[in-house]
Design a protein that fits this description.
Blueprint lengths: L12 H31 L5 H38 L3 H36 L7 H13 L1 H16 L3 H24 L9 H25 L15 H32 L4 H17 L1 H19 L3 H35 L5 H14 L6 H13 L3 H14 L1 H12 L6 H25 L5
Helix pairs in contact: 1-2, 1-6, 1-10, 2-3, 2-4, 2-5, 2-8, 2-10, 3-4, 3-5, 4-7, 5-6, 5-7, 6-7, 8-9, 8-14, 8-15, 9-11, 9-12, 10-11, 10-13, 11-12, 11-13, 13-14, 13-16, 14-16, 15-16
Length: about 450
């Protein structure tokens, strides 16, 4: 591990971004893998696999709520810690970490009680049937007990990454995922001397995996070379501190939720013209996950670096970080554009055998891809603003991309030229959002950049 505590402000920017981005992307892939493996084992429980899998699916909204509360505190506090580190104010950074840790303990306790008491009611409201409710309750009851581990693991990961130790975050995720994958068949099917626990075994495996990840984080915080230590001498944050955390954390959560709102509205619009358009939109967003995956890693790697240098008042270095990130994500999105222009039908065909859908989907993908490269401006600006603690400004950009521009554009285009014209709303939105994002980012930096320390 690098012993230079100020490496976020001294190492070459390109090297530093890759150093933080690659482990972040790897951790995301590991998470995706073990979630898939978990579902595969559950789906193969003898006689009840399909019902058990459906039951777990019904639990997802509650699981996402737990993760959202972790993101609220972690994403709200970690950028502030990065800025304090750049200002060489280690005490304030440690206070932020300690206060957020205590806050997550309290939130975890409240969530655990609420989930244990209201599981059945919540799950029935989310669509559980009389055939699946018992499986959903069995899984969620055990998951609720492990809420503390989930909350602290996600929150601590944000602070580890904020200090530039993305490899440690990846290692923790890997160890937890491997633990989960190993325990899944043992506890679900009752291998060796363990009893057969079915879906409850899957929940226990998940909880143990999260606990192991948390232990790795805590060991690193207390014993590792991390500059901002976790200490028990801080109290629950007061109203002013919580306001600042919410000012970053709540917009970050909304940023994650906005794409779902957009898809919901577009699905309703497109269904009036053709069900195949709805299918194509769903396929596109599955593809988009992979197309934007590496770019997302670069953006996440940028956040602690730009936050640290913003706090240090290094205006020139902040500018270089922003431009380097733009260039790196631009190359990735150019590659995605090339793929969509050359093998669009093949990409759509990986998800469907319907010839008509493949042709229409290929056309849609080629039109949408016209906005990929320019989207790097709004994506990078939004990530940079989150990194320097400007959550509201970041949310403004996301609102433009997912609500304010694209939905009216889609409505107008569909009513003027038919359902197939909706795909043009995507590139129109990206061009409009890019202009606003650049103005908002530059204006924010100019107004708020601290003086050099």
């Amino acid at each position: 591990m690098n012993e230079n505590k100020n490496f976020l402000g001294t190492e070459p920017i390109g090297k530093l971004l890759l150093r933080l981005a690659l482990p972040t992307v790897a951790a995301q892939m590991i998470n995706m893998l073990y979630n898939i493996v978990d579902r595969i084992y559950i789906g193969h429980i003898p006689n009840v696999g399909a019902l058990a899998l459906t039951g777990v699916g019904v639990c997802m909204p509650l699981i996402m709520i737990v993760a959202a509360f972790a993101a609220l505190v972690g994403n709200g506090g970690a950028p502030r810690a990065s800025i304090f580190m750049g200002q060489r104010d280690t005490e304030s950074a440690e206070k932020t970490l300690g206060n957020c840790f205590l806050t997550q303990l309290i939130i975890s306790a409240i969530l655990t009680i609420v989930l244990l008491i209201g599981n059945r009611t919540f799950l029935l409201s989310f669509g559980a049937s009389e055939n699946t409710i018992e499986y959903a309750v069995s899984y969620m009851n055990i998951y609720a007990i492990g809420t503390l581990f989930v909350q602290l693991t996600l929150g601590m990961n944000a602070f580890i990454t904020a200090q530039g130790f993305a490899k440690t975050g990846m290692l923790s995720v890997l160890i937890g995922a491997v633990t989960n994958i190993i325990l899944d068949p043992i506890l679900i099917f009752g291998l060796a001397f363990f009893p057969k626990m079915g879906i409850s075994g899957a929940a226990i495996a998940t909880g143990v995996g999260q606990l192991i990840s948390l232990m790795v984080y805590l060991a690193f915080y207390f014993k590792g070379p991390v500059p901002v230590k976790l200490e028990a001498r801080y109290k629950i944050p007061g109203g002013n501190t919580m306001k600042k955390l919410y000012g970053i954390g709540i917009p970050a959560i909304l940023n994650l939720a906005l794409p779902s709102v957009m898809i919901f509205v577009l699905n309703g619009l497109l269904a009036q013209y053709s069900r195949s358009y709805v299918v194509i939109l769903g396929i596109y967003y599955k593809l988009q996950t992979f197309l934007y995956f590496p770019a997302s890693g670069i953006i996440q790697g940028m956040r602690p670096v730009i936050g640290y240098n913003f706090g240090a008042g290094e205006r020139e270095r902040v500018g270089t970080i922003y431009k380097t990130t733009l260039a790196m994500t631009g190359v990735i999105m150019a590659a995605g554009t090339l793929l969509c222009l050359t093998i669009a039908n093949t990409l759509i065909g990986a998800f469907t055998d319907n010839a008509e859908t493949i042709i229409a989907g290929g056309t849609a993908l080629r039109i949408i891809s016209a906005g990929f490269i320019v989207s790097t401006v709004s994506v990078t600006a939004s990530g940079a603003l989150e990194g320097i603690g400007m959550g509201v400004q970041s949310l403004v950009i996301s609102l433009l991309r997912y609500i304010v521009v694209i939905l009216p554009s889609a409505f107008i285009l569909c009513h003027l030229f038919g359902g197939g014209a909706v795909w043009n709303a995507f590139w129109i939105t990206e061009f409009a959002a890019a202009v606003v994002a650049e103005i908002v980012y530059r204006g924010t930096i100019k107004r708020t950049m601290p003086k050099p320390r």
